[in-house]
Amino acid sequence: MSHLTVTVTVSLLSLLLSLVFVSGDVIRLPSQASKFFRPTENDGDDDASAGTKWAVLVAGSSGYWNYRHQADVCHAYQLLKKGGLKEENIVVFMYDDIAKNKENPRPGIIINSPKGENVYNGVPKDYTGDDVNVSNLFAVILGNKTALKGGSGKVVDSGPNDHIFIYYSDHGGPGVLGMPTSPYLYANDLNDVLKKKHASGTYKSLVFYLEACESGSIFEGLLPEGLNIYATTAANAEESSWGTYCPGEDLSPPSEYETCLGDLYSVSWMEDSDKHNLQTESLHQQYELVKKRTAGSGLGSGSHVMEFGDVGLSKEKLVLYMGTNPANENYTFVYENSLKIPSRFTNQRDADLVHFWDKYRKAPEGSARKLEAQKQVLEAMSHRLHVDNSVMLIGKILFGMSEGPAVLNRVRSSGKPLVDDWDCLKTLVRAFERHCGSLSQYGIKHMRSIANICNAGIQVEQMEEAAMQACPTIPTGPWSSLHRGFSA
């Protein structure tokens, strides 16, 4: 190893350590609607047998460091199956690279909590690998079999009396949700598809649970009332969501695991559903419990669970969307449930570093595994520095040294969508990535900055020129490469 390489390696490791709070032998990483009451003849109890229940479950990531997203989705499948939903009415999207991953200490098994059972068993492989993409997801929601490319061919072939439940777990950024393939899922496109589904008259009501950073931005100012859609999100439009059951937490995974097992919002609604009689618990009651648990314990971590759309639907019972496990029939709902609120959890955007660092910490000195983990930490940190510095420099080139940061960090008033022109946002994202490399799961945190550049009237030619100045070359690391295509 050359002197220069050693110097760079030591510098980056020092930078990482400067950002980390170490307690004992574990790592602590830093964080980087009005109501519409739908008229109804009853409270939903008598409707439980009417219509068909449909579900779409989406894990929008790949990579072992994102274990928790596929674990969340597998758990959701098991919950719905126990609730009585038929397999043909549950559509599952997941990359399926976790259960048999070389890093998985229990091959063929996925767990969603430290003492959890295998939630991977029996999960249908409807859309896996590169078939997990935006176009297939939209085709499934709309029931459009002819638009599918690959996969099982299963779609939501719903009718006017049916109830639909959509659950999505992944990384996110302002106005965007991740996908293991390109392009990513943009908020305006998702809401347009939901409007089309409503216009087709092929459901009675639809519930959407969304786990992602800045997930409130997916519906804020975009999901109108009157579509019979109720959505809840893990976070508001400006904050991270949180991983849980991570190495070093008070509720940590078994010692052989080096990754987070779940996401806080997701395990909150599922562990509540696992326990309660969903014939008697309402969407609103679950929302309140999940909101309390996801808010954390007041130590500076946690997020604000939000609700959007036809909030009046939340008075309906969960059984309409999730069914109910007969084993829970005699369980009496109480607001103060016994689900433990963890004292610490991990920022979604830091979960990859938690995995790489825990892997590095546990690997024997001088081993190939330790060198691999060190390389992964350095590549991830280098990419973060590159993206952060590139976006900041572009802002200063476009708006000046003092005004640039102010424009990039501007937050619109509550209730307004992220950007006025979504095509502009996508065009400027592509311009950035052509010259600076892909944003990746970390870089989409900067979507608000790029949206603000659009809102300020910057044209694509100006963005191209600024990006060329900021990024004379594209870094060669895996996080910055374009081998997976553009984000937009």
TrEMBL record:
Q: Which residues form the Legumain prodomain domain?
A: 375-471
| Record-linked Pfam families | Legum_prodom, Peptidase_C13
Report which reactions are catalysed by this protein.
Hydrolysis of proteins and small molecule substrates at -Asn-|-Xaa- bonds
Entry's Gene Ontology BP terms: proteolysis involved in protein catabolic process; vacuolar protein processing
Q: Where in the cell is it found?
A: Vacuole
Q: Which CDD domains match?
A: legumain_C (cd21115)
Q: Give TM segment ranges.
A: none
Q: Where is the signal peptide?
A: 1-24
Q: Name one GO cellular component term.
A: vacuole
- InterPro entries, per database record: AE, Legum_prodom, Legumain_prodom_sf, Peptidase_C13
List GO molecular-function terms, semicolon-separated.
cysteine-type endopeptidase activity
**Which UniProt key words apply to this protein?**
Disulfide bond, Glycoprotein, Hydrolase, Protease, Signal, Thiol protease, Vacuole
Active site (UniProt): H171, C213 (nucleophile)
Q: What is its EC number?
A: 3.4.22.34
Q: Which family does it belong to?
A: Belongs to the peptidase C13 family.
- What's this protein's name? legumain
Report the source organism. Microthlaspi erraticum
